[in-house]
# Entry
Amino acid sequence: MTKETKPTNLTRRALLGRAAAAGSLAVIGGGFIAAPNASWALTVNVISSHQMATIFQMARDIYPHDQIGDEYYVIAVKGYDSDGTKDMIAEGVAALDASAKAAGFADYLSVGWESDRVKLLTAMEDTGFFQTIRGGLVTGLYNQKAVWPIFGYEGESFSKGGYVDRGFNDINWL
Amino acid sequence: MVAKFDLNDDNVVVVIGTGAGGGVLSNELAQKGVKVVALEAGGRYLPEDYVNDEWESFGQLAWTDPRTTSGDWRVSRDFSGLPAWIVKAVGGATTHWAGASLRIQEHEFKTQTHYGDVEGASLLDWPITLADLEPYYDKAEKKLGVTRTNGIPGLPGNNNFKVFEAGAKKLGYKEVSTGRMAINPVDYDDRLACQQTGFCFQGCKWGAKWSAAYTDIPRGEATGNLEVRENAQVARILHNDEGKVTGVEYFDKDGALQMQKARVVCVAGNSLESPRMLLNSASAMFPDGLANSSGMVGKNYMRHMTGSVYAAFDKPVRMWRGTTMAGIIQDEARHDPSRGFVGGYELETLGLGVPFMAAFLDPGAWGRSFTSAMDSYENMAGMWIVGEDMPQESNRVTLNNEVKDQWGLPVANVHFTDHPNDIAMRNHAYQQGKAVYEAVGATRTFPTPPYPSTHNLGTNRMSAKVQDGVVNKWGQSHDIDNLFISDGSQFTTGAAENPTLTIVSLAIRQADRIASEMSQKNL
# Structure
C-alpha cells in the first residue's frame, strides 16, 4: 500500500541536497521520493523509488501540462506501487532505461530535454507498458476533480441551480 | 396499483427493453388495456439518482457487459470492448439521449429510389412513407414536448450555440437554430423547464428532458396493466411446434432462470442486443435464429456517419454550460450528390466535460499536440456530425461464441467498416464544421473521430419483401406473426436525423396495430 507522507523531518535544503535524479524530481532513496520544493512526497513499498520516479516522469511527458503541479501526476501513478503491477513496471522501466542508454544517456531520468524523452517514448508507444501507463492517465489525471479548475472546467452545477441565471449565454466577444 | 402477472399467464405481451421503443410501446399498450410484462436488463434510476459526473454516471448507467468488435472502424481500435455507448437501465437510452427530435425526411424513406445503386450498399426503400408516419410523429412530438412544435417555443441558445450560430451565419447557412428538442423551455406535462445545467447525457436531474424512465414507464404502471421487471436479462425467446413464440426465458435479479409465458413478444433491446437475442434463440426448427429465414438478422448494422469538430478560440466559450446539444445546422441535410456523396448530414452543437474530452478528443493521442488542445478547453466550442450512413450487409452483429457474458450467453460482436460514401460525407462535414468555427476566429480546429455508437440501427430491418429484411411495415417479423421488433433495429435505412423521435413514433403506431390485431384475435 502506497501512502503519501509529509516530509516533516526533512528540510527543503536536505531534500535538494540528497536529490539523486535530474529533472523535477528528487529520488531520495529508501522508498522515499519528494519534490525538490517539498510540495509533495511519497513513499513506495513494492516498487523502487527509481521506478516510481521514472513512471512519474513518463506521466509528465505523456500528458505534459506545465500549469498542473506534480502532486496531481503523483496521484495518477502512485497506484502502480502494487504487487499486481510490479513486474510490468520493472520490465517497462528497465526497457526504457535501456533505450535511454542506447541513446547515450545514463537512464531515462537523466535525459534533460522533454523532446529527447518523447523520442524514447515514441519508440515504445505500441508496448503494453506504455499503453497501460497512458491509458491509466486518461482517467487517472483528467478525472481528478482537483485538476478541473486548472482547465477552467466547473464540473457539476446542479447544486447551484444550473447556469440558467449564472452565465449559460454570457459570451460577449462574438 | 402496479400490476403483478403470473409467469404462466400466457395472455400477456412481453416487451423486452424499456427505452424509446420498448418503454413507449409498454405504456401505449397498457393505456389500451393490454397486459404487459416489460423485462429490463438494467436497474431503475430516477432524476434524484443521476450523477453529474461523466465517468461516475457512465459507471451507473452505461451498458458495460462484454461485447467485442471487428472491422476497420476506429472504435474497434480505441474502444475494442465498447462498440456502443448505450444505457442499461429502465428508460434505456432515453436517459442519456441529447433530446434532438427530428422527423426523417420524405426522400430518406425511399433511398433506393432516390439514391439509385450505390456500389457496396444494400439500400432499400422503407415499406412505409413519411405520410404513413406523420400522424404518429404528431403524437410523438406531443408526448415528448418537442420544441418548435405544438406551440412550444425553442430553447434559448447557450454559449456553445452562439459561437456555432455566428459562424453558420457568416458562412451563409440559413437553417440554424436551437432545433427541435425534447427538453422543456417552459414547464410542460408535469416536467420542469430546463435549468441549463449541462450533463444532459448523464440523465436530466430536473426531468426537463423527456425520458421514458419518468414519463411513459410510471404512467403505464399506473394503469395497473404494466409490470416492469428490472435486472431481468433475457436469455432466449421460446416457440412451439407451430413456430409461434410462447414465452421468454430470462435471468432474474438473483441470477435464477425464469420463464414468462407470452401471447406476443416484442423485442426492443436496441440494435445490438435485439439481434443477439434472436440469434441466441436458435432451435431445431429455426437453426439460424428466430425470424431469420432471410438471413438478415444482425446484418446492415448502421451507426450513423458521425464525428465531431471542436475548435479553440482566443477567448472563453465554456461550452459545458447549458444544454449539451441545443443547436443545429440543417442546410447540409439535403440529398445533393454534387457534394460527392448521397444523403446528407446535420451539424449539432455538443459539449463534453474535461474527463470525456480527454478520452474522446483524439483517442490514444499524447504529447504536446494533445495537451495543448486540452489546455484550451475553456476556450473550446464543439459540434457533432450526424449523417446518413450506407447499409452494408457485411456490417453486422453476430454471436461471438468465444466470449460469454456473466450468464454464460455468447456476446454480440459488432463488425463495422465505413462505406466510401460515409468517408466522403465525413470529410465534407469536417471541412464545413471547421469553416463554421474559422468564420468566427477559431485559432485551431480538431476533426474528432466517431465516439462509440449511440445511434445503433438496422440489424432487424423493415422490408416489403420477406427476403430483404426481418420485419414488415408494422415491425412484425416476416416469419413469426406474434414476434415484433420495436426498436431502432427495424430501421430500413438510417436517414440523417437522430433516431429517437422515429423510434417513439413507430412504437406508438405498433401499439395501435398490436392492440387491434389482438382484439380481432389475429394475435
